[in-house]
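Design job #97: recover the sequence.
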């Protein structure tokens, strides 16, 4: 099974570091980056320019920043929570937002984990490993050549 990861992140620096971490964990083969909330929603709904589901399949994991140009990670979590076909996708919130209320709300809305930037890359790796152990993410196809991240929009 190939895993497809949607990285919702507006910082190029963090995108590069998360991609390297996913590569390290054998999960970097199919990563799409959405820089905004609207790009993430379009991808998840299979709307243009992501309407070709063979090229843009439903992700098996979402790594989500909280602060985005057009909304917040909580906005996306609330939106996902309302969509029965999408709310089962595991989400890890990876953010610089240290507000405990945001963390609590993210977890209440279904996020599997909440990891703080900038030093939380080791914790993000552990969160990913927990999902692999639970069988929610599979790295069985990691031996194939890595084409690098795709960019949404």
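Job complete. Output follows.
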């Amino acid at each position: 099974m190939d895993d497809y990861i949607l990285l919702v992140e507006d910082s190029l620096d963090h995108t590069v570091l998360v991609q390297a971490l996913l590569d390290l964990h054998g999960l970097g083969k199919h990563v799409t980056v959405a820089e905004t909330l609207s790009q993430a929603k379009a991808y998840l709904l299979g709307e243009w320019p992501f309407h070709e589901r063979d090229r843009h399949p439903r992700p098996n994991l979402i790594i989500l920043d909280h602060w985005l140009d057009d909304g917040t990670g909580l906005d996306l979590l609330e939106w996902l929570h309302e969509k029965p076909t999408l709310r089962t996708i595991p989400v890890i919130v990876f953010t610089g937002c240290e507000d405990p209320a945001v963390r609590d709300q993210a977890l209440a809305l279904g996020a599997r984990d909440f990891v703080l930037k900038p030093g939380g890359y080791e914790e993000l790796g552990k969160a990913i490993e927990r999902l692999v152990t639970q069988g929610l993410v599979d790295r069985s196809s990691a031996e194939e050549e890595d084409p690098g991240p795709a960019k949404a929009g």
